[in-house]
Amino acid sequence: MTRPPLDLVPADVPADRLTHNPLNGVTGGIWRTRRDGRPAVLKLITPPGGAAGPAHWAASAEPGHWNYWRREVEAYRSGLASTAWASAGLAGPAVLAVEERPDGTVALWLAEVDGRPGTAGTVGDFAELARRLGAAHADWRGRTGELSRYDWLARDWLRDYTLSRPVTEPVPWDHPAAVAAWPTPLRAALRRLWERRRELLAATDRLPRTLCHHDVWPTNLVLSDGGPVLLDWSFVGPGPIGEDAANLVLDTFFDGLVDVALLPEVADAVLAGYVEGLQGAVDPVLVARAFRLTGAAKYFWLAPVMLNRAGGATGQTYDRRDEAAMFAGRRPVLELLARWAEESLP
Known about the structure:
Phosphorylase Kinase, domain 1
């Protein structure tokens, strides 16, 4: 859908289509436009069966499902997106309107946020975001029982999302594309990571719990003068300490949106900022382990999926590199991922 429906945005009103994951059956489109004469962002939310797409990105009608179709609507309507982390200086954009439409879709109108895109962030920006994430997570440490009143939160997002990724076995670990870009020790480590995926997830179950966004990365971040603003609250729910911070590191680099040469510095700065923000609510040694463990658990499936697709379409939305460049460009991030897994599991 190149433009919003005319009942939402008349033909004479500009509407610029924004990049989003077109595979996700929940998102019918996102546009930068205007509402009542002011800049706005319109997100069209689609119910199950309302959009074509692969099964592993299908919208769900089950409130606890990782991809429940109404979750972001409810996060904004309830005020959770604007208040849950407000004490830490983090929130979503202001809600202008929520419109239930006759065809079953929902029009979510949000205020446009002025600022730099997250992809233009510096090491210092990411460290500050991590500090605020730590403060937010500390605030919800031990309080996740209060979330029971929100029956639409993701029930077990990390496990449900990762185990739903479409990996076909046997994985071709020695595919020519991998051999050309990834040395033998890395391929062996990534194979061990895949084989120990359930151990990883079980280990994350034993970590302290908090309220997680579950999709903290540069394209969901605006660096405004008033502080960082987080977009896309469609996956929000309880989760383990460390997960949002680890995801920030990995997703900043996997798609080639930020220079991968910054990876070591960003990883160190994000962990340090996150520990600082937690202010002792969780032992720093445990925080460092949780950071590595949840990062490894989030992406144990990525190398297998890349190898399944090797030789065909990459299936990427944000990463515009060709296959060889993508395999080579992701090598440093996959090496970090494999090292985190080796350091986290006995």
